[in-house]
């Protein structure tokens, strides 16, 4: 059985800072991590491998230095890694990214594709379902438990706001995982030691041969018009309020987040 | 020619989700801001035995509802639903298509976007037509990025429909009005045989074990809440958050160590940290000062918690929480 | 400071750091207060291959190198010096001498289980009357033809009550002093062997430091490690390596203390501003950080020399001397920057200060390091 896990290298947002003048992110010196939902995907794949036997391939799209994340994936014990990278891919929005990754995946063997639900630097949750569509695969997103896997089928539990559903899915299929799905293992000494001796397969657009109109900025239906920083003034004015007024203020602040 | 604003109307347990009605109203607002376009608000209802809900969508502001009702559609299936929406888009050419940012909406909308090759913006917090050009149909969709530090305004200039998902409670729904009239159109369901996914069982949602480090909203109490722990819990349930506590409550044996926030407890970074009756010693603030928004309530106006708070309320936390809870009844 | 490390070592460090923050740090306070040996943590380390880092896969090790092992000790000790020394004693003092001096039989029988982590190891040289003066050993090993009969006692033995295998030293030729000492591999199941009283210590309180007693323990001849009467050389050479581990522990404690202090001084306010704004805080921390880095670099140098098979006796002694004294100074000054809170057990900083002290004492006191350094210098 072949499992492909889609993973993204993301900045550790708990340390993210914004340049107050330009409104852009300060990326220098920021520690990067494997996106948490994707890490759960890697862990899920490794557990299937341990139980049923499987080859686990981690695929990422990004700049060349995303390779360090793939080394980390080797440290966790995956079998193969692929870096999809090309200057022509830069600026891709989710749909263009999905097209590129789907094309790369067509060059690989798979029974199951696992994508993290969403990346913490984008929160869009789009790439998984889009790739499923582009590869004509059945999809189950927001998987919070894998209950069974056997000959050609995977059984998963996903939840909506009101119910949980146990679903039996015929493979090949794509699922997206939540970080709550499992607790990822640590890297181990043996695999870390060998991580830099293994090959990171690279695909660029000479390999994928995608039309320039479909990739990068040009191939992205969406554009960023502008970015700006949320205006929070720390050290707020102290307000002496009665209970009703105070509740009003709190409800107003909470409203966008409930 | 593309026209109109379509809203996917999500139904769970034969009830329309609030977020869908909020979007219907938002669509109405958008149309009102550009009367010259002659757009209409169109609700899209897909499922089994849901035709009876079409009128409701109209009562909440839709001009038109497209209904696809079929026994095959009782279990939501991404592939089938996306195929139906693609058919509707091909037939009606909507300018804009909005979806609730629910688990279903965030599953369905991206699949549709790939199917019809258009852009999709997730979790919009504001939507408006290009404010600089009154003739433009370009939608300016603003969303948070990087955990809320940064906002981005996204456009989708050359692909139609322009699509977005929006979380619940971002917009308000209209007041229900039974006098409102509108058109109900049936969309014929072509049998699609995609049986790759079958339901094994439906499970009532299980209460998960709480983990305050992952909570998006934390209602946290300090010494000032020691005789009103129940209130913290009630508030947390109402806000769909978790209870946290300062060391004082742990030491008094009123709360378990697992929910202690601070240097010797857990470090948390929720979207909202509601600090109730917590004085805010550095030992505590070290564990929560990176929360995105801190709302502090304390009777002592010199309490250091106010130094880190985004909203500082001088008052009795117990009374205020009590009042807050009545708002959710 | 990461200038000297390869990407591979940086990834190794990242792994240990993550493990230490998530698994070691949360237990450190309790381990200290209740004097608990962290069995569960050792188990987890075993699963990750941390108990056999520099040993070849042929012997069930992880096949990595000595630098990786040193990075593990540093990262563990940043949060819990007890956990750091458990790994150091196991690796440097038990696995390493078997790897270096062991026969094929010994490697097969013991190193495989030690490096895989199935066994935990310990090392026993010190006796009640033979500390720095190792020549005053009283434990004897009498040749009984097929076996040696060992009788005597050892004290201050790290990992003692949790170890499965011990490297111990005994007189095979009492008249020859240090030239009559031999090394042996002892198993905890051997008849006549027992673990005695547990010491109540100032720091590293979870490390299970105990006495060992040998009452006519029959040890097969094939368990002699190295040659007859060459045990003192085995001990000295093993301690040369062990010192790098202890120096790494000292560096870890020092970095841990600085990390805690940097966080604290930014938060703690006095006279209306955070105490990090005061020049005294700034200058003290600048000094401490410089010393910690210097110690770290000395440790890396010694580790690299050992890794490359070059002489490192002087460099490891220097690293331990400097790192231990720096660690003691750093933790003491960090407590001072914490003020009254630093003296309470609410914060980890006083524990770090108590833990740092032992690094100036065990595996050769600072004075012994000076003897080693000067003897090489003045040779």
Description:
The complex is a heterotrimer of chains A (258), B (329) and C (379). Chain A is α/β, with parallel strands linked by helices and 258 residues long. Chain A is built from 7 helices and 15 strands. In chain A, helix 2 links the parallel strand 6 and strand 7 (80-84). The longest helix of chain A is centred in the N-terminal third of the chain and has 17 residues, at 36-52. In chain A, 49% of the residues are buried. Chain B has helices at 18-33, 54-59, 78-92, 103-116, 229-238, 247-251, 282-285, 305-308, 317-326; strands at residues 3-9, 11-12, 15-16, 41-47, 64-69, 94-100, 120-124, 126-129, 139-145, 150-155, 162-166, 183-186, 197-204, 217-221, 242-245, 272-276, 293-298, 311-314. In chain B, helix 3 (78-92) packs across helix 4 (103-116) and helix 5 packs parallel to helix 9. Chain B has 9 helices and 18 strands. Chain B starts with a strand and ends with a helix. Chain B has 2 domains: 5-186, 3-Layer(aba) Sandwich (Rossmann fold), CATH 3.40.50; 212-326, 3-Layer(aba) Sandwich (Rossmann fold), CATH 3.40.50. Chain B is elongated. With 379 residues, chain C is of the alpha+beta class. In chain C, the strands form 3 sheets. Chain C has a 4-stranded mixed β-sheet with strand order 1-4-5-8. A 4-stranded antiparallel β-sheet of chain C has the order 2-3-7-6, with no helix packed on it. A two-stranded antiparallel sheet of chain C has the order 9-10. In chain C, helix 3 runs antiparallel to helix 4 (81-101). At the A-C interface, helix 2 and helix 5 of A face helix 1 of C. Strand 11 of chain A pairs antiparallel with strand 13 of chain B, so a sheet runs across the interface.
């Amino acid at each position: 059985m072949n499992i492909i896990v889609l993973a993204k290298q993301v900045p550790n947002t708990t340390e993210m800072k914004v340049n107050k003048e330009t409104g852009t992110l300060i990326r220098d010196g920021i520690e990067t991590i494997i996106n948490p939902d994707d890490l759960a995907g890697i862990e899920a794949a490794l557990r299937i491998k341990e139980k049923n036997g499987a080859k686990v391939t981690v695929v990422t799209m990004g700049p060349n230095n995303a390779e360090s994340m793939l080394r980390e994936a080797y440290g966790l014990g995956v079998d193969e890694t692929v870096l999809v990278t090309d200057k022509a891919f830069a600026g891709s929005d989710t749909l263009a990214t999905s097209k590129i990754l789907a094309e790369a995946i067509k060059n690989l063997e798979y029974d199951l594709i696992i994508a993290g639900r969403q990346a913490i630097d984008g929160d869009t949750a789009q790439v998984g379902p889009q790739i499923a569509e582009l590869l004509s695969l059945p999809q189950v997103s927001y998987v919070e438990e894998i209950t069974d896997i056997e000959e050609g089928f995977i059984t998963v539990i996903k939840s909506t706001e009101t119910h949980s559903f146990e679903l039996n899915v015929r493979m090949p299929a794509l699922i997206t995982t939540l970080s709550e799905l499992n607790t990822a293992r640590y890297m181990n000494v043996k695999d870390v030691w060998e991580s830099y001796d293994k090959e990171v397969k690279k695909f660029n657009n000479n390999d994928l041969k995608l039309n320039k109109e479909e990739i990068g900025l040009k191939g992205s239906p969406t554009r960023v018009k502008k970015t700006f920083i949320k205006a929070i003034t720390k050290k707020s004015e102290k307000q002496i309020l009665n209970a009703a007024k105070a509740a009003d203020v709190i409800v107003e602040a909470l409203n966008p987040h409930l | 020619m593309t026209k109109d604003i379509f809203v996917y109307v999500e139904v769970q347990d034969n009830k329309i989700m609030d977020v869908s009605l909020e979007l219907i109203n938002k669509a109405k607002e958008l149309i009102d801001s550009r009367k010259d376009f002659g757009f209409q608000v169109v609700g899209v209802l897909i499922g089994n035995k849901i035709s009876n809900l079409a009128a409701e969508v109209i009562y909440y502001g839709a001009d038109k509802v497209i209904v696809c009702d079929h026994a095959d559609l009782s279990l939501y299936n991404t592939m089938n639903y996306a195929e139906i929406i693609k058919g509707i888009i091909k037939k009606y050419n909507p300018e804009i298509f909005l979806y609730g940012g629910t688990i279903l909406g965030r599953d369905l909308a991206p699949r549709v976007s790939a199917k019809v090759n258009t852009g999709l913006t997730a979790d919009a917090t504001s939507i408006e037509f290009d404010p600089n050009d009154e003739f433009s149909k370009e939608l300016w969709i603003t969303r948070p990025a990087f955990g809320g530090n940064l906002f981005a305004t996204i456009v989708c200039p050359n692909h139609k429909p322009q699509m977005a998902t929006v979380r619940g409670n971002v917009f308000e729904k209209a007041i229900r009005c039974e006098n409102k009239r509108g058109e109900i159109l049936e969309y014929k369901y072509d049998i699609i045989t995609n049986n790759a996914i079958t339901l094994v069982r439906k499970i009532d949602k299980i209460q998960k074990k709480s983990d305050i480090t992952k909570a998006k909203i934390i209602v946290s109490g300090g010494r000032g809440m020691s005789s009103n722990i129940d209130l913290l819990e009630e508030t947390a349930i109402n806000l769909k958050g978790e209870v946290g506590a300062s060391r004082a409550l742990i030491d008094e044996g009123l709360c378990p160590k697992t929910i202690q926030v601070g240097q010797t407890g857990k470090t948390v970074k929720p979207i909202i940290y509601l600090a109730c009756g917590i004085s805010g010693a550095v030992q505590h603030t070290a564990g929560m000062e990176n929360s995105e928004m801190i709302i502090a309530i304390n009777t002592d106006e010199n309490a250091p918690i106010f130094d880190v708070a985004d909203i500082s309320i001088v008052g009795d936390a117990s009374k205020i929480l009590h009042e807050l809870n009545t708002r959710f009844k | 400071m990461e200038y000297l490390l390869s990407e591979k070592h940086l990834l190794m460090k990242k792994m240990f750091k993550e493990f230490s923050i998530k698994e070691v740090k949360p237990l450190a306070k309790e381990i200290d207060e209740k004097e608990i040996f962290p069995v569960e943590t050792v188990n987890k380390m075993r699963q990750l291959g941390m108990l056999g880092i520099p040993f070849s896969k042929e012997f069930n090790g992880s096949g990595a190198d000595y630098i990786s092992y040193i990075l593990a000790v540093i990262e563990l000790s940043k949060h819990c010096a007890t956990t750091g020394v458990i790994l150091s004693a196991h690796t440097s003092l038990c696995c390493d001498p078997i790897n270096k001096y062991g026969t094929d039989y010994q490697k097969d029988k013991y190193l495989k289980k030690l490096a895989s982590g199935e066994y935990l190891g310990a090392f026993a040289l010190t006796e009640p009357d033979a500390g720095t003066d190792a020549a005053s050993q009283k434990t004897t090993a009498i040749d009984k033809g097929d076996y040696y009969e060992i009788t005597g006692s050892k004290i201050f033995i790290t990992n003692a009550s949790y170890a499965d295998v011990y490297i111990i030293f005994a007189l095979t030729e009492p008249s020859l002093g240090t030239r009559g000492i031999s090394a042996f591999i002892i198993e905890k199941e051997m008849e006549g062997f027992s673990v005695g009283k547990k010491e109540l210590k100032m720091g590293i309180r979870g490390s299970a430091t105990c006495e060992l007693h040998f009452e006519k323990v029959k040890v097969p001849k094939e368990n002699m490690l190295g040659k007859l009467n060459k045990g003192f050389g085995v001990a000295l050479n093993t301690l040369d390596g062990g010192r790098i581990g202890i120096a790494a522990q000292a560096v870890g404690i020092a970095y841990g203390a600085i990390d805690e202090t940097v966080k604290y001084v930014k938060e703690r306010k006095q006279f209306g501003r955070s105490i990090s704004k005061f020049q005294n805080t700034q200058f003290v921390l600048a000094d401490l950080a410089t010393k910690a880095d210097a110690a770290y670099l000395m440790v890396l140098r010694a580790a690299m020399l050992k890794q490359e098979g070059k002489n490192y006796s002087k460099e490891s002694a220097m690293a331990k001397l400097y790192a231990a004294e720096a660690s003691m100074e750093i933790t003491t000054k960090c407590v001072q920057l914490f003020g009254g809170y630093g003296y309470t057990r609410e914060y980890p900083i006083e524990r770090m200060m108590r833990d740092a002290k032992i690094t100036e004492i065990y595996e050769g006191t600072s004075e012994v390091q000076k003897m080693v350094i000067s003897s090489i210098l003045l040779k």
